[in-house]
Structure formats: structure tokens, C-alpha cells
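Protein of interest.
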Amino acid sequence: PRMPVAVFTVGETTSPMSKTSLQCHRMCGIVGLFLKTDRYRARLGELTAVMLHEMRERGPDSAGFAVYDEGVSGRTRVTVLAERSTPDWGQVAGDLEAQLGDGVTVRSIRDHAVFETDGDGRAARQWLIDHGPDVDVLSYGNQIELYKSVGDPDLVAINYDLASRIGTHAIAHTRMATESAVTTNGSHPFVTGADTCLVHNGSFSNHNQLRERLVQHG
């Protein structure tokens, strides 16, 4: 079915602007980098951090990034966020390993943790959704790791060690909150499937009508 399209414009200015004024002219910033050869893959994070810095004034409220490497065949990573608690990640990994019957490792950075397993990746993801101690699953797949937080994009990049990350490609976002609250879960990127995520610029004011139309079309 044909769908309506929302259109927005982005203004430019060289003079200092208040946040209210910026909201009228600028919305969010999106950067992406895909490295086709091995030459710069050791600098993926460094280059992405520079690009993210250039977008910081377009989105001072929060930021996030997803980085991809070549992964290990048959091994799944699940990135989780524990914004409201401080779990014992080792205990969580042990409980998950007992559930899966396969080895599980975990590494953490601030309020994020990345679980890795050779077992059933979908089962690991679902167990963390259902039983993780007050955690939110941010991403899962063979190659992806995803980090995001509120605050200055440069600090987000520093806090989650973006500059040191290596890999094949990355996508990052800086958010200017124009309607909804400034929260980590409201930050981008958003996972859309295994090894898949998206960022976007703009907002849907008619999302309820669009949902009804899509439901009608199955």
C-alpha cells in the first residue's frame, strides 16, 4: 500500500544558537562508515569518533554507536544495558550458561555488557530479556556490538571506548530530542534483528494511523 511521507528541512547557521533555536533548524546527526578493505579497519572506531564529534552540536542530548567486525562463525554476542542497577555480570553469565548448556563469557564497560556464546544465540537473547536482572537487550548477532547513553556525544564516545574499536563498519547517531524524553533507551541506534540496527532523523506525528493501516493490510 502507498504510505504518506514526512518531509523535514535542516537549516544551517554559523552564529551561536540556543537549544530552542537549534530545534527549529537542526535535528540529530547521523554518520556511517563502511571500510571495504583491511587498510583502515584497525582505525574504524577512531575515524567514527571523529565523525561523531562533527555531529555533536546537531544532537547534544544523547548519542550511540554500533560497530561491526568479522565475528567468529557460530558465536553470538548479546549487548545489554543495565541503566538502573549494577548486576553481578559474572553471576548472570553463569546462570545463562547453566540455561544454555554451553560456555558463556561476558565483558562489561560501565553500564553495558557483552555476552558471548557458542550456544543458541536466540535462546541467550530471550533468556536475558526474560531473566536478566533489570537489563535491556540492545543488540544481538555474530558481528554487532551496540552502545548508547544520554549526554554529550564526545563523552559517550570516550566512556564506551569508541576510538579503540576495530572492525569493518559502524553507524552512529547524535540526538536532538524534540518530542520525547531524553533517555538511554530513547537513544539510537535501535536493533531491528540479528546483526541489524537503524538510526533515523525525524519523528512520526501520525504513527497511530499508520499502525492501523498496516494492521488492516496484515
Summary: The longest helix spans residues 89-100. The mean pLDDT is 86. The CA atoms of residues 96 and 137 lie 14 Å apart.
